TrEMBL record:
Signal peptide extent: none
SUPFAM superfamilies: Nucleotide-diphospho-sugar transferases
PANTHER family documented for this protein: GLYCOSYLTRANSFERASE, UDP-GLCNAC:BETAGAL BETA-1,3-N-ACETYLGLUCOSAMINYLTRANSFERASE-LIKE PROTEIN 1
Identification of the protein by name: Glycosyltransferase family 2 protein
Family from the record: Belongs to the glycosyltransferase 2 family.
Pfam families linked: Glycos_transf_2
UniProt superkingdom: Bacteria
Entry-linked InterPro entries: Glyco_trans_2-like, Nucleotide-diphossugar_trans
Annotated CDD domains: Glyco_tranf_GTA_type
Residue ranges of the TM segments: none
């Protein structure tokens, strides 16, 4: 096979029920100058046999000698990629047929962008929903990464030259959130973007490693996210006290089933105001943009976390409320039914 422009990287572990659909979605892409790099991490089911049943010469299967974990496997993927770009694809997801073509076209015409994601469709669980991240430009994503992850990993497409130039790899100690850390490291040296098109079907509602890690290793997961926060906050010189950092990490936590202490709910508005003032003085991000990213992120968390409704409304009025009465009515008319639904079904 000629030197491929794109490596589609699929980490594989016990995914016999879904790997066929994932592979077919890549084999039949409208863009063909690619290799399909599959790293098997010690599967014990029929996954490897299914991959071996395909005769497409673009497929390259590498097997770890034993189960090494996802950070190790992702780094093997980086080392083994022959393309100039890496498209990441989970073994249980499905790429739309024009995904690679559209991502290649964008990256070839935007040489200042180092990594991109896209909109995506969640399917397979109780809900089918199109996810359209609000932050899509490089500055919006960089500002948002201070708070939470912004790019869905299986939608991503990375310029490998950037990773090699700066020695960026997945953190081998992070059994979760390696992607969040990857985007943070890229954001320090380059630019990110989200294509405002739905290019992937993201499967939920089944047993997988990520869900199990959330259930079994909640404390370690939070410690990893805290570490990533500390890294990005330090990079921008947001010098938080130990107590402020604890408040920040407790609220901006991706475990949406965890509770938030009264102290954090009380102190959070003043902490966020301090962050906005620091940004204004030091001109890290556009002032209005940074404030909007904070408001939007807080609103998302308020709608997902186990917080008393009285506190939710109080925080909304302190942090999220905007000048438009129409926007306020819309936000609150969503927040209250969502809160009741979570009480009934969570």
């Amino acid at each position: 096979m000629d030197q491929p422009l794109v490596t589609v990287f699929i980490p594989l572990y016990n995914c016999e029920a879904y790997i066929q659909d994932a592979l077919k979605s890549i084999i039949h892409q409208t863009y063909t100058n690619l290799e399909i790099l599959i790293i098997d991490d010690g599967s014990t089911d029929n996954s490897v046999n299914i991959v071996n049943s395909y005769t497409d010469s673009r497929i390259r299967l590498i097997k770890n000698r034993s189960n090494k974990g996802i950070p190790y496997t992702r780094n093997v993927g980086l080392e083994e990629s022959n393309g100039e770009y890496m498209a990441i694809m989970d073994a249980d997801d499905i790429s739309y047929v024009t995904r690679i073509e559209k991502q290649v076209d964008f990256m070839e015409n935007n040489l200042n962008i180092d990594a991109i994601g896209s909109y995506y469709n969640i399917f397979g669980g109780r809900f089918n929903k199109v996810m359209k991240p609000k932050s899509i430009t490089s500055e919006e994503i960089k500002a948002g990464l201070v708070l939470l992850n912004r790019i869905a990993n299986p939608t991503s497409f990375i310029r490998l030259e950037t990773l090699r130039k700066y020695g960026i790899r997945y953190n081998s100690a992070y059994f979760v959130a390696q992607d969040y850390d990857m985007w943070v490291q890229i954001s320090k040296v380059g630019n990110l973007f989200i294509l405002p098109e739905v290019l992937l079907k993201y499967r939920t509602g089944h047993s997988n490693i990520t869900k199990k890690s959330k259930a079994d290793k909640v404390i370690q997961r939070k410690q990893i996210n805290d570490s990533i926060h500390e890294d990005i906050l330090s990079f921008y010189n947001f010098n938080l006290t130990e107590e402020e950092l604890s408040i920040f990490n407790e609220f901006f936590n991706d475990n949406y089933h965890s509770k938030i202490s009264d102290n954090t709910l009380i102190r959070l508005p003043s902490l966020l105001a301090s962050l906005e003032e620091y940004n204004r003085r030091n001109k890290l991000f556009n002032e209005d943009l940074f404030s909007e990213v904070i408001r939007d992120t807080v609103l998302v968390i308020l709608n997902r976390r186990k917080i008393d409704l009285r506190h939710k409304v109080h925080l909304y009025n302190k942090v999220c409320k905007v000048r438009s009465n129409r926007s306020t009515t819309k936000d609150l008319s969503y927040m209250v039914p969502k809160h009741i639904y979570n009480l009934l079904f969570s």
